[in-house]
Design goal:
81 residues; elongated; mainly alpha; 0% strand; 3 helices; 85% helix
């Protein structure tokens, strides 16, 4: 999400975006934690497979969600001042 796009959104749209990110980010983090544990168990039982790398592959998605949430919050705060 670019800063230009955030600046063109209304305050209500920003609040809706923040709410969606606040729900999605912890769910994604929880699922990644479960995937990490399961990939370790799978690695121990069956050895290395492509599924062992999946939590690492999805980690950037979590990082991007966290960064976008911070940007949206920053934009909302800048408009309320």
């Amino acid at each position: 999400m670019t800063p230009e796009k955030l600046s063109k959104m209304t305050l209500q749209e920003l609040a809706k975006q923040e709410k969606a990110l606040k729900v999605a980010t912890p769910i994604l983090a929880g699922l990644l934690a479960v995937m990490f544990v399961l990939s370790i168990l799978l690695f121990v039982r069956q050895g290395f497979s492509a599924f062992s790398t999946m939590p690492i592959a999805f980690l950037p998605l979590l990082i991007v969600n966290i960064m976008n949430l911070k940007k949206v919050r920053k934009e909302i705060i800048s408009r309320k001042i």
